[in-house]
């Protein structure tokens, strides 16, 4: 199925609102919880880790439900996108509105409840959204192009929180802007509005293609049901929730045993742990070790994601020339080079004036972002190829639940990383009440970020290297399907 560019654009825009809210939480929540709200690093890490874990286990459940769901108005996926879009907009605002005069216990409970509700809505949007992309663009080349559209808006959404931080954080004392709660609330209002606009553009812009998929799947299901006994259908309908829940996660472990699935799922999960280290400790590092202002931090984070956006045509073209895995391996080597260069600036920071250091770090961060751009698109496209091959061979469309498996594994890895980060902040004696941290604390922040990022990328690269699906295999299988029909 070849998609029109307006449909691809509408689909891609949907990722903008989700990505902006998700990245706002990723960028600021650890710093906000510790340095603004005054909650201990361990408690903030626990709250964030539990919410991420809940997001992970709910992903395949929502994916399974969306696979089984049928609606003439919204097809298989769009109804979930409606619910998720509205919910994200509401709970995003509540998350940043924690009462400042409350006790640490009340702040912690408020934080964790809002995070759990927000993640529930994020799951309701994100998993069916990914599955929708696989449904409407099952072709090898079309899938890469659609992922390119999606990734550009995803990374643009990752840039926006940093830009909004520069615009909406209170000015006056340049260093203290990131410590004011009002700035985070202002950002929440803007990102929630953007989420609603982008979400409904996606919903209405892809509705025609989604309904076409729904009609095709309905015809396929009718044919399948005619070949099954009524007894089996009745037994299937009587399965309880817990039985379904158990079967979902049993299938997760079955999928993990499949070589190419496991290489993508585990490689992706491990490699993107680097973003957990950077997003959760990055603001601490740049604020307390590099002594950058909120404006400078905003520019740095923007440079990271802008370079990732600019890299998309490069990685897509390279994937078309060399295939997806070689392009991904090259991109991850670029990331490792960028991490090495940035770590050198950290070691030399006390010898270089801050204003000069800032521009040097921009350059090294740009290298990191350029390589990271491929991590946001190529693994998803490779995973979609695995799902497409399965669908062609078995006739079963499991893109929803399989997309949930991908995010389940990523979120499990991410939640442990965030919990460890929170505990490490307490172990290194980070004190949010102190505007200037001891040199040992500053060095420890750098160690957490650079070693954590480098290890996760290196291990992810090793795992991705074992993936062996090629373009020719996908095209050959599709050709056999056409000949059979």
Outline the structure in words.
By secondary structure, this protein is an all-alpha fold. Helices cover 82% and strands 0% of the residues. It starts with a helix and ends with a helix. The model is unreliable at 224-238 (pLDDT under 50).
Percent range for β-strand residues: under 5%
Q: What CATH architecture label applies?
A: Up-down Bundle
CATH class: Mainly Alpha
Number of domains: 1
- Total E-strand runs: 0
Low-confidence stretches: 224-238
Q: Roughly how much helix do the residues carry, as a percent range?
A: over 70%
In sequence order, what are the helices and strands, one letter per element?
HHHHHHHHHHHHHHHHHHH
What structural category arises from helix and sheet content? mainly alpha
Measured between the Cα atoms of the first and last residue, the distance is: 15 Å
State Rg: 22 Å
* Average pLDDT figure: 86
Number of helices: 19
Approximate shape? globular
For the biggest sheet, the summary is: none
CATH superfamily: MFS general substrate transporter like domains
CATH fold-level assignment: Growth Hormone, Chain: A
């Amino acid at each position: 199925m070849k998609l029109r560019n307006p449909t691809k654009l509408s689909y891609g825009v949907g990722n903008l609102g989700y990505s902006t809210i998700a990245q706002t939480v990723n960028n600021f929540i650890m710093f906000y919880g510790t340095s603004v709200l005054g909650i201990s690093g361990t408690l903030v890490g626990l709250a964030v880790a539990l919410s991420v874990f809940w997001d992970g286990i709910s992903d395949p459940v929502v994916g399974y439900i969306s696979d089984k769901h049928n609606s003439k108005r919204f097809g298989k996926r769009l109804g979930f996108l409606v619910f998720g879009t509205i919910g994200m907009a509401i709970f995003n605002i509540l998350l940043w509105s924690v009462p400042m005069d409350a006790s640490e216990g009340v702040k912690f409970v408020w934080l964790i409840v809002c995070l759990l509700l927000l993640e529930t809505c994020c799951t309701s949007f994100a998993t069916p959204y990914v599955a929708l992309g696989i449904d409407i663009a099952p072709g090898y080349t079309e899938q890469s192009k659609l992922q390119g559209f999606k990734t550009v808006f995803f990374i643009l959404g990752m840039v926006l929180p940093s830009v909004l931080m520069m615009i909406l954080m209170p000015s006056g004392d340049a260093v203290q802007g990131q410590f004011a709660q009002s700035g985070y609330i202002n950002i929440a209002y803007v990102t929630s509005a953007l989420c609603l606009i982008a979400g409904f553009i996606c919903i209405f812009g892809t509705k025609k293609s989604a309904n076409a998929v729904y009609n095709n799947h309905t015809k396929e299901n009718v044919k399948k049901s005619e070949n099954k006994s009524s007894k089996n259908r009745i037994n299937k309908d009587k399965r309880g929730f817990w039985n379904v829940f158990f079967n979902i996660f049993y299938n997760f472990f079955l999928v993990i045993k499949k070589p190419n699935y496991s290489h993508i799922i585990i490689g992706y999960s491990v490699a993107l742990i680097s973003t957990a280290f950077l997003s959760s400790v990055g603001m601490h590092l740049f604020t307390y070790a590099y002594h950058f202002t909120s404006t400078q931090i905003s520019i740095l984070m923007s440079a990271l994601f802008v370079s990732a956006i600019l890299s998309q045509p490069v990685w897509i073209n390279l994937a078309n020339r060399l295939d997806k895995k070689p392009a991904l391996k090259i991109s991850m080597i670029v990331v490792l080079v960028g991490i090495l260069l940035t770590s050198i600036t950290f070691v030399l920071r006390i010898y270089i004036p801050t204003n000069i250091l800032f521009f040097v770090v921009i350059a090294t961060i740009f290298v990191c972002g350029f390589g990271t751009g491929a991590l946001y698109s190529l693994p998803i496209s490779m995973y979609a190829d695995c799902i497409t091959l399965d669908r062609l061979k078995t006739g079963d469309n499991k893109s929803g639940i399989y997309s949930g498996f991908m995010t389940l594994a990523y979120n499990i890895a991410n939640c442990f990383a965030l919990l460890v980060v929170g505990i490490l902040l307490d172990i290194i004696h980070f004190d949010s009440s102190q505007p200037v941290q001891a040199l040992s604390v500053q060095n420890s922040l750098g160690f957490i970020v650079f070693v954590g990022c480098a290890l996760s990328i290196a291990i992810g690269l090793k795992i991705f290297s074992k993936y062996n699906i090629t373009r020719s295999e996908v095209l050959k299988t599709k050709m056999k399907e056409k000949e059979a029909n």
